[in-house]
Amino acid sequence: MTLEIRAKDTVAEGVVSLTLAHPAGARLPDWTPGSHIDLVLPDGMTRQYSLCGDRWDAYTYRIAVLREPAGRGGSAYVHERLEPGDRVGIGGPRNHFPLVPAGRYLFIAGGIGVTPLLPMMHQAELMGVDWQLLYGGRTRASMAFHAELTGFYGDRVHVRPEDEHGLLDLHTWLERPVPGTTVYCCGPGPLLAAVEDACAAWPPHSLRTERFTAAARTDPVRSAPFEVELRRSGRTVAVTPDVSVLDAIRLAGADVLSSCEQGTCGTCLTPVLGGTPEHRDSVLADHEREADDCMLPCVSRSRSDRLVLDL
Amino acid sequence: MLEPTTAAALPTSDADPFAPEHLRNPEPLHRALREAGPVVRLSRYHVHALARYEEVHAALGDWQTFQSGAGVGLANFHHEKPWRQPSLLLEADPPHHDAPRRVLREILAPSALRRLRETWQAVAEDLVDTVLAEQGTEFDAFDALASAFPLRVFPDAVGIGPDGRDNLLPYGNMAFNAFGPRNDLVAADAGRVAELSGWVNTRCAREALGEDGFGARIWAAADRGELTHEQAPLVVRSLLTAGVDTTVHGLAATLYAFATHPDQWQRLRERPESARVVFDEAVRWQSPVQTFFRTATTDVTIAGVRISEGTKILMFLGAANRDPDRWTDPDRFDLGRDPSGHVGFGMGIHQCVGQHVARLEAETLMTALARRVGHIELAGEPRRHLNNTLRSWASLPIRIRRAA
User: What is A109-164 written as a DSSP string?
Assistant: First the structure.
């Protein structure tokens, strides 16, 4: 899926938000709070960003990106180079951080970690579930969306910049397990560790965290054409950047059943015998993606020169 | 029957799509509705109907505008009390829909079904061998195959015990009738509502479920906090409601297709790897689930027709699956076509969460049959069973010739 940048706005010191839409104005794949998308950068590397917009608007995605001077260049590219009108490759959305039912939520955000929690707060409101947000960051000016959150939700939101309040007072907030409360935390590693520590006495499954690990992949996504070999029928087809693997192999005569063609239903799941797929679907679990023995050709592509499919 | 009204430029039909003649043979009405326009008002029920592929496909995908939470039948749950506690999946919208859908999607994902394939292959081969040995070359394929196979493998996979499984089809029949108007079909079920609902509800309890089935996995998800313990039995109920009749009549549709298209049976026998596509083409061609309703969440315009908030919209999945603007020679069952994109399983966030289960049932049964049977034909007139939502069967007498 290739999307177009519709808007780029500075939402805090060092944080820009991007609004993405389909170039032809089509609906975007559905998502749930906690989901992220992969942004495919021109060097072929991918970065994951949480969706923080409103899914009742089916036509745009919103992400917010913190410039990370010590990072690998993804955020710098987004900040310095991407402009409205540019197009970017997108994978997903996928959700490793789903909002589960609870009697009450405590959201704990550190800095840019507030992004996956934004749609969760909206959702909690819609379901009429009690919630609080404890939001930490270096300085007030660096904390994205804090003014909107306070404006919308009033005293549910506790904005605690470090230069004003010191580190988040997790001890007080988490001292006693509260039955029926689920804690959601997203932020830098030290915050996650501190929250995990503070929740040690809470019932199992009452803490849910999101941790973005740097992609283990070192081989970049291909922007050049690649070949797909259909092993059983003995045919090989070239896949250029403008067509999906599914369309290319169908043109070559392969019978592949599909349905949603958005990487969400799983119907076109196809065994991979060789090569390394670039998974862009919302279906496969991490261990299935890492096994590289199957793919969804409606959206997924290739990291290697050649893919071999059991077709 | 169809009188264009000049004022609204909205064609109106007084046809009753739930009348016996249309349930028995829906294609003529479907054709008339498609030809009348992209949106047709059904005056009898004060609802709007979509029968063309483009509009049905778009409405299925657009949960923001066309909600399910007001019920996916004629009754509007905002004004009428549902006959049972609404489904957490079928009759729910985001955000409430999210958690049950996620849990069930993972339990019924293709990768999670791999462990069932070998078992189901063995059951299918055993069933076909037994039928051929005991019933010879002429039998009712609806009972012997289309019903028998899902009724054996699916309740096993869910983890419900052997007793009372004969309640499953009547319960499903009742649930699918209830999406229609309160007509004679609904009245005929009325006497058994309490008994059948009571039986199904007891099967959804944790202690009634085997240790390693879909049902136990639903309860395990609740133990992990992914569902509440109040939601778990209702999610099991969804499996038992939506997972039996649909596959039974889908398999019957597939067998009917082959009994009436012997050349296509030969094609399957020559290319057994096409067994997967077979079921989807049969689902496109017969659309076991014929219709579902949505409710407009706002004033909306479809193809220039304004529809007000709260209006019920009847989507004819069966008509969309035979729309000549989408499908070449749509009335023909043809394994040479690519049925991808049919709306027989729906589309979007409510698309049949058990579709991979249904395909696996069909693939294993048809593969076992194709290995043993060289030819299938009708041995008598097939009989439809009428249901307000399902295109169902009462009997499908066939004659087979064993493979050489």
Answer: EEGGGGTTHHHHHHHHHHHT-EEEEEEEESSGGGSTTHHHHHHHHGGGEEEEEHHH
